[in-house]
Amino acid sequence: MTKKNTVVNPSKKNSGKLTLIKRTSRTIPAYIKATIKSNEKTIEENERLLTK
After folding, report:
1. How would you write 1-50 as a 3-class SS string?
2. Which among 51, 50, 29, 32 is positioned nearest to 40, based on CA atoms?
3. Distance between alpha carbon 50 and the CA centroid of its chain, in Å?
4. 33: containing domain
5. Whole-angstrom distance, CA of residue 22 vs CA of residue 19
6. Global pTM value
7. Which helix (H) or strand (E) holds 51?
């Protein structure tokens, strides 16, 4: 029984790491898009202030 447990546990740890990587890989592009949008807004605001 102990041998079976030691075999199963590492696979569970690895699968957890893989799902974490999958989750982060999905959220990273969304985060980049959000930062680009906020940067574009700040650029527009700066241009408005410069033209005044």
Report:
1. CHHHHHHHHHHHHHHHHHHHHHHHHHHHHHHHHHHHHHHHHHHHHHHHHH
2. 32
3. 35
4. 1-52
5. 5
6. 0.42
7. helix 2-51
Q: Which residue has the tokens 């959000």?
A: 34
Calculate the CA 10 to chain-centre distance: 25
The rounded radius of gyration (Å) of the Cα atoms in the chain is: 23
Q: What pLDDT, on the 0 to 100 scale, is given for residue 40? A: 95
- Torsion angles phi and psi, residue 51, rounded to 5: -70, -20
The total number of residues written for the chain in this structure: 52
In the chain, the number of structural domains is: 1
**Distance (Å, rounded) from C-alpha 31 to C-alpha 26?**
9
**pLDDT per residue over 1-46, tens digit each?**
555 545 555 555 555 566 666 666 677 788 888 899 999 999 999 9
